[in-house]
UniProtKB/TrEMBL annotation:
Family to which the UniProt record says this protein belongs: Belongs to the class-I aminoacyl-tRNA synthetase family.
EC numbers on record: 6.1.1.19
Species this protein is from: Paxillus involutus ATCC 200175
Protein name per its UniProtKB record: arginine--tRNA ligase
Biological process terms in GO annotation: arginyl-tRNA aminoacylation; mitochondrial translation
GO molecular function, one term: ATP binding
Keyword match Aminoacyl-tRNA synthetase: yes
């Protein structure tokens, strides 16, 4: 569906074919640059911001630093203004000009664009909200990265949720993304497990749930080690054999790693998360670990303390960091350095992101600084996306150690809630699946609702409530929109967009609010890419859900006598469903159709 708006000059960096609000902003910029000829249309465009409550767009005149008082400049812009297809009114308020858009054009153009890019997009996939700002660029995103044989704790859960969002976000913006899971699959804990497996291990338990069984073995051996210091000595010897490539020490380890990954893939699938590659500390070659130490030694930054190698980063206020233990084994800083070099050789990325908790800020800063000192030209392409802590994550019965315990708990709480409404419960085809999805949505939304860096307290009641800004509320909003087609079969199939008369919607403040929000979605995606924050997308989804919820009473479809009005309203709701669904998928949530 081609826009019916008059043509406008092109402003670099805008694309009205994927974000129709760009056209309205350009029309405002055109008006300003024509009236204030000292400004180019690009300069004027950069001053067009979203307005505060009830105002579409606002321009703060002082930001242009033009000669003359704001009042005089405003007067020039306002002179003999006539409403047109883009702008219905301009009001002057002190240093500001407020612009209201033409309701009829706005609603028609937004709905047309959503429909065209959802059902007739050039790629064949729904593409409303996507852009090509990252076309031709490569990014590697490392996230989740649990330790094999240790619990998948809450920090890993946050990294998984935020990382999955970033993968979707960068893909939505045209980047070529490689999602990496860098497993903690190396280190002295494997020496502990290997030496304890003979005593506590069971093949049957291992093949049933490798993650849990290896963890249990590790806990038992660690207890032994408290009573007998020899256990740790044996474990260290065992790990040394692994580092030296002793095949007999590596056979079991390989099997444990493989079975653990298999189990993790299942758990990630439930979370709607997938990786392009599972790698791990074990895959990092020794060559670059040695080279890193040599290079830093040449630069005079290495000191030897009781046989251990330390790198001095005091000059950059980053303390001293251990690169190699006294017994010659590597530690994870050395492995991170070597791993980054190997990834550069493999992927030649434009950017590489590590999604790691803020407790590791110092470690990441040391690691990035060392790569800069080694004079790698790509060292400044690395970025740490950090996040705060989750407090009090446990099941209702007590401490949760494993991801699957938390998912099961969320699903069972939701299942109980669903059973309370017997009639609705009976109409759901697969209540187990639905309760699990709603539970996972609750966990994810609670995690992404505030800025990443904030700590938050995990709260089951709050998280799984249908009241307020929660995951279940978003799923409910999507389900209700999806049910509109089922409830109004007599209006289907809707005629093509060109034959739907949307003029009646222009009279409704509710329809206008919904359309304005829908039109802003491509901007929400661009802002999220700048900030790398999921919270903006979550806020958008809630604002949209609230706007729809307050429209149900007045913008009625079922029972509306005027069929033209009913069709236009149904189309508005279906476009809202498509955009809400797109925002949820961007957040790695699977939108439900019934619940």
């Amino acid at each position: 569906m081609v826009s019916t708006l008059p043509s406008l000059p092109h402003v670099p960096g805008t694309d009205p074919s994927s974000c129709i609000l760009d056209a309205f902003r350009t029309a405002i910029a055109k008006r300003i640059s024509e009236r204030l000829p000292q400004l180019t249309i690009e300069q004027a465009y950069s001053g067009v911001d979203y307005g505060k409550k009830g105002v579409d767009f606002t321009v703060a005149l002082p930001r242009f630093r033009l000669p003359g008082k704001p009042d005089e400049l405003a007067k020039k812009v306002l002179e003999d203004f006539q409403p047109d297809d883009f702008i219905s009114s301009i009001t002057h308020d002190k240093q500001f000009l407020h612009f209201q858009l033409n309701n009829t054009s706005l609603i028609r153009e937004v709905l047309n664009q959503i429909h065209a890019l959802t059902y007739d997009s050039p790629s064949g996939k729904p593409s409303y909200g996507t852009n090509t700002s990252g076309a031709g660029k490569k990014i590697v995103i490392e996230f989740s990265s649990p330790n094999i044989a240790k619990s998948f704790h809450v920090g890993h859960l946050r990294s998984t949720i935020i990382g999955a969002f970033l993968v979707n976000l960068y893909r939505t913006c045209g980047w070529d993304v490689t999602a990496l899971n860098y497993l903690g699959d190396w280190g002295t804990q494997f020496g502990m497990i290997a030496s304890g497996f003979e005593k506590y291990g069971s093949q049957e338990a291992l093949s049933k749930d490798a993650i849990k069984h290896l963890y249990d073995v590790y806990v038992s051996v660690t207890k032994d080690a408290e009573a007998d210091p020899n256990v740790k000595v044996e474990a260290a010897k065992w790990f040394k054999r692994m580092e030296d490539g002793d095949e007999s020490a590596l056979t079991n380890w390989r099997e444990w790693r493989e079975l653990s990954i298999k189990k993790y893939i299942e758990e990630y699938e439930r979370l709607n998360v997938s990786f392009d590659r599972y790698t791990g500390e074990s895959e990092v070659g020794k060559e670059w670990m040695d080279k890193a130490v040599e290079r830093l030694d040449e630069l005079g930054l290495i000191s030897d303390v009781k046989g251990a190698k330390l790198v001095d980063l005091e000059k950059w206020k980053l303390n001293k960091a251990v690169l190699r233990k006294a017994d010659g084994t590597s530690i994870y800083l050395t492995r991170d350095i070597a791993g980054a070099i190997e990834r550069w050789q493999k992927y030649q990325f434009d950017k590489m992101i590590y999604v790691v908790a803020s407790q590791q800020d110092l470690h990441l800063a040391q690691f990035f600084q060392i790569l800069k000192l080694m004079e790698f030209p790509w060292a400044d392409r690395l970025e740490h996306v950090n996040y705060g802590m989750v407090l009090g994550m446990s099941t209702r019965k007590g401490t949760a150690v494993f991801l699957d315990q938390i998912i099961k708990e969320a699903a069972s709480v939701m299942h109980e809630q669903m059973k309370r409404n017997e009639e609705k419960y009976n109409s759901v085809e697969d209540p187990e699946y639905v309760s699990q999805e709603v539970g996972i949505t609750g966990i994810k939304i609670q995690d992404m609702a505030a800025k990443r860096i904030n700590n938050y307290t995990f709260n089951w009641d709050r998280m799984l409530s249908f009241e307020g800004d929660t995951g279940p509320y978003l799923q409910y909003a999507h389900v209700r929109l999806t049910s509109m087609e089922r409830k109004n079969p007599e209006l289907l199939p809707l005629p093509p967009p060109a034959q739907i008369d949307t003029s009646s919607l222009a009279e409704s403040a509710h329809a206008r609010d919904i359309a304005t929000l829908l039109g802003s979605y491509p901007d929400v995606v661009k802002t999220a890419l700048k900030t790398q924050e999921p919270s903006g997308v979550v806020t958008f989804a809630f604002r949209l859900a609230h706007a729809i919820s307050s429209a149900w009473e007045t913008l009625v479809v079922k029972g509306e006598q005027d069929l033209e009005k009913a069709k236009a309203r149904l189309w508005l709701y279906l476009c809202a469903r498509d955009v809400l669904g797109a925002a949820m998928r961007l957040l790695s949530i699977r939108p439900l159709e019934r619940m």
